[in-house]
DNA sequence: CGCCAGGGGAGCT
DNA sequence: AGCTCCCCTGGC
């Protein structure tokens, strides 16, 4: 099988997997990571800074390199951390392998509609369900079946409540109506993907079921607007515990989203080890 | 304008 | 048995 090997500092597949930005990435028993993005399938394995991607060189260069944001040096961000901010230094040290992926816009809209008032394990299951029901069927290099992400055209045909069968609960109609908005041209994803952060956020907010938090997640994880700073319950708790006088957003102007992700990851997992 | 119930159900304590 | 969960909508 074709494979690409790279040495990549500040990169951890398992941290990215656990960081709650992508829900179609999972670790198999043998430490191999399986990543499905849109209709693409990739297996990868990492030991320290050495990563093995099981795909052709051209596919890696043309797609996965950008997907994992490997061109960016995250030390540029982490070096700007206030040395007096012990909490942030701790958080960044703990999740130093995190990257902000560049995922597909429609996939992120649906994923974060599902994410609301939901936990990561269940979000994964919901997305697995809709992919297996409504996604195109594909076969990987070993002849194993996997499913692509359901296209808006397919989901737009459904009734409001149809996705309850996929465990989406009340979020079913958010996804179905978002699909209808895309198909009808009410929102044009090509256009949105070229808009600056504020305009993109505004356009996304017009979708039924998309509030500020979800819009910011989509901006961050699909459009790579690193100034988006999604505030969920974990971030809110961290803000109250460590930044009573307000988070120094100005200091991290333009890449608050990266900082947010370090904090989120640390709040979710870092405390358990203490 | 602000407040808050309700929505489904898994996974935790 | 209760609470929480990367919330948003709609009714008051």
Question: How does the SSE layout of this entry go?
Answer:
Elements: E1 4-7, H1 13-18, E2 25-27, E3 32-37, E4 40-47, E5 50-54, H2 57-67, H3 75-78, H4 86-94, H5 105-115, H6 120-134, E6 137-139, E7 145-147, H7 152-155, H8 172-184, H9 189-192, H10 197-205, H11 212-221, H12 233-242, H13 256-269
The structure holds a DNA duplex (13 and 12 nucleotides).
Describe the structure.
It is a single chain. The chain is of the alpha+beta class and 274 residues long. Among the domains are: 4-71, TATA-Binding Protein; 105-221, Hypothetical protein, domain 2 (Endonuclease III, domain 1, Orthogonal Bundle), CATH 1.10.340. The protein has helices at 13-18, 57-67, 75-78, 86-94, 105-115, 120-134, 152-155, 172-184, 189-192, 197-205, 212-221, 233-242, 256-269, and strands at 4-7, 25-27, 32-37, 40-47, 50-54, 137-139, 145-147. Strands 1-5-4-3-2 form a five-stranded antiparallel β-sheet. It has a two-stranded antiparallel ribbon with strand order 6-7. The longest helix has 15 residues, at 120-134. It binds a DNA duplex (13 and 12 nucleotides) through helix 5, helix 6, helix 11 and helix 12.
The total count of helices amounts to: 13
Using the coordinates above, name the CATH class of the domain at 105-221: Mainly Alpha
What sort of overall outline do the alpha carbons produce when their principal axes are compared? globular
Main sheet record: 5 strands, antiparallel
Task: Give a count of the beta strands, DSSP E runs of length 2 or more.
Answer: 7
